[in-house]
User: Fold these one by one.
Assistant:
Number 1:
Amino acid sequence: MHPKSGLALVVSSTYGTGDVPETAESALASLLDEKPDLSALRFGIISLGDSHYGDTFAKGGLHWDHALRQCGACRVGEILKIDCQSGEDPAVLAKPWLAGWLDLAAGPDAGMATGAVGSDRGR
């Protein structure tokens, strides 16, 4: 998180049946249990997954989106879902999305969750 702007970018992989990584489970659970006031936070999500898992593809990032919204945070733009089995470099796929997301975050409508830059990449 950028401390002065209240802006955060969450990058999460997906494990098992659509779960966040084991190392992130306690942080996610704490957000959902404690529900701190994050109303000053704007955030974006990059979610990594394997499209072979159909309904749970890139679901780890969706868990973060839900938890942060429950705490009052506002998502800027759409969630970027990256298929790590596509053979393409996730960093290369994320770069244009990130540029657009940063523009949205800096714009006059930055407090609105909009669909201007999201997509499924590498699928």
Note: Confidence is low (pLDDT under 50) at residues 114-118.
Number 2:
Amino acid sequence: MKRYKLKKKIFLAFCLVPSIITFLIFTVYPLLNGLYMSFFKWSGISGNKEFVALKNYKLLLNDSVIPKTIINDYFLVIVKVVFIMMLALIFAVVLTQFKLKEAPFYRFVYFFQMSCQL
């Protein structure tokens, strides 16, 4: 019984480790590196980086364009989510309530792309 549990844990580790490594490499590392780089004044090309601490954040908060861009960003996110949900609801109602002979094909096309995602 202990041997079975050990094999199960090893199998789960082998299944989870690639996802965790991918998440760390492509999400956590760039996030932390971006946070680190935000404390420097750097052109992105030259080798000299000047440590400016929170000066970049002060400039960001004092910029008149930033509040408007944040409002626009949240507006687009909310509108996009509402629009996509309404569109999905319409498709769901059409595919389930109306007797379409093509409905199985559309269901297959819709769910096939979800099964192919990584």
Note: The chain is about 75% helix and 5% strand.
Number 3:
Amino acid sequence: MVRKITKQDVARKISSYLNRTITLEQMVDWAEEMICEAEYEEGDFELIKEVLSRLGLADVKEFGLSWDDCYNFLSRLGYQVRVFLFYKTDKKSPGRDSNPRSPPYQGGAFPLCYQGTNFFTFLFLCLFYFCA
């Protein structure tokens, strides 16, 4: 069965790469496979094909893949990119649940002015919001 690829599929894969849930090689392999075997969503054929082609070359030294490249791809796919910072801690904070993705503090995105922290202890977590 041939899989139909959408802009959302491509954006999710880039997001997974930026959030380090997949490696660059895994994203490149996926992009190459989608170029060869998938059908593209009607109306977005050229855009999806162009982004997949570029992702498929990301492991080639002359092309590479920068943060700006990912940002531009996501923007062209209809996404607004926002970066939220979460404090990296080695010990469990009071009231924190067992979910490793839950923040070690109360109240959502971590403020940059949090007391007693060093900026270099922050870990970047990229979240993407679809533009309506």
Note: Residues 4-77 form one domain.
Number 4:
Amino acid sequence: MKKILVLLAGIFMLVSSRAQEAPKIAVLVYGNNSGVNEFIQNELITAFTDDGTYIVCERQEEFIALINKEHSFQQSGMVDDRYIIQMAKKLGAEYVCCFKMLDIVFGEQPIAARILSVEKGTVVRSVQWSGVMNSMNDVRAAVKTICRKMTRSSDL
């Protein structure tokens, strides 16, 4: 009888811990500077996981390689959201963060970021940011600001 109770308690704890587990997210950074892109990707991963908002998918390099392969076939310079969602499903992600550094305008660096729901195929959060970035600390601060705006609500 004790063994059954211990087994049931263990199963209950496992199920309840999985129910409270943060959603999985894949991170994709676009831009013309691969060194800065990698830095931003690492900053996004840190920002998303620091407070437990998300669990970042482990196979990020594979995800980015698949997306880059598709990107090289397209002439528009943009990757179709449907393809990104397809690749994220293969990784087991529930969400995808797409982060794009746009061309500098009037001395400011515009950034467009959005979170896509893999299940629904919709944009659940979108953030636009623009500012002057003269150092990696400026980039880090911008990423943190954008992440705060993207994760401001627990309704994801």
Note: The domain at 22-150 is CATH 3.40.50.10610 (Rossmann fold).
